[in-house]
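Appendix B, Record 12. Input sequence as logged:
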Amino acid sequence: MQNDGGNIYQTARKAAGLTQEAAAERLALSVESVRAYETGLRVPGNDIVARMCTVYDAQYLGMQHVQLSGTLLPACLREARPERLEAATIKLVRRMMRFADEHRSDRLLEIAEDGVIDDDERPEFLSIAAEISEIVKAGLALMYTEEV
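Logged structural output:
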């Protein structure tokens, strides 16, 4: 998988200062597998990419992998660019605080307690669901921040 700067797996490995041999050992893979991923002959599975993220200390690699692998993603993540740590943290906390301050969780419980969303409740339920979606997006953005 190529990005504008070359193969994402190779770029992350080199940024971690590892040779293919050292990376293969730490990832419990063969050198041939690492080479195949880095030359685009094979695409690593999500489990291997998760290990790469840890070994290479490159959480952004997971986002890049998912973006390039053709995996179905919400539109918010397809074109996502890592935010700075401060901005992502502020955005997440502000959204959560607004949700709490407006007692949206209480209202969601009231709507859901009878197990049915009435026609009168549906617009508010959809609004609350959209707010929760924004909180989740902000949480995901925080996971893939760029540190200064």
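The CA atoms of residues 24 and 30 lie 6 Å apart.
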